[in-house]
Amino acid sequence: MRNDHYKVLWTTYARVALARMKEFKVDPMNVFKRTKAVLADEPKYKADGVSDFPGFEFNGYYWTLIGNVIIIYRIDEDFREVYVDACYFANTGLSHYVFWGIDPDEE
């Protein structure tokens, strides 16, 4: 029987960014564990979108919302690994603008 699960790996940059979200009342360990559980199976289909914002460092990466945190990740199909390269707190004007196209100045 073939194992269809992906190994989910977090970069140091992403882990540090997640740890700093405690000040926003985010539970970093919960988000970390949930991300590993969610993205281990069919990570392409778990994405809320693919980032495409002018000048954004992670354009072309998948993203999903887990526990009020936007998780930025890429997938290596050959090694069956998911790499979480960045994460952002979801409740900021910049996050709304970059990921959902909502201009905070228009509301």
Written account of the structure:
The protein has 107 residues and is α+β, with helices and mostly antiparallel strands. Helix content is 26%, strand content 26%. The protein has a five-stranded mixed sheet. Strand 3 and strand 4 form a beta hairpin. The mean pLDDT is 92.
As a percent range, the share of strand residues is: 25-35%
Structural class: alpha+beta
Uncertain segments of ≥5 residues (pLDDT<50)? Answer: none
Task: Write out the strand line-up for the largest beta sheet, numbering strands in chain order.
Answer: 1-5-4-3-2
Biggest β-sheet description: 5 strands, mixed
Name the features.
107 residues; 26% strand; alpha+beta; five-stranded mixed sheet; globular
Task: Compose a concise summary of this entry.
By secondary structure, the chain is α+β, with helices and mostly antiparallel strands.
Secondary-structure blueprint:
Blueprint: E1 7-10, H1 12-19, H2 28-39, E2 49-50, E3 62-66, E4 69-76, E5 81-89, H3 93-100
Parallel strand pairs: 1-5
Antiparallel strand pairs: 2-3, 3-4, 4-5
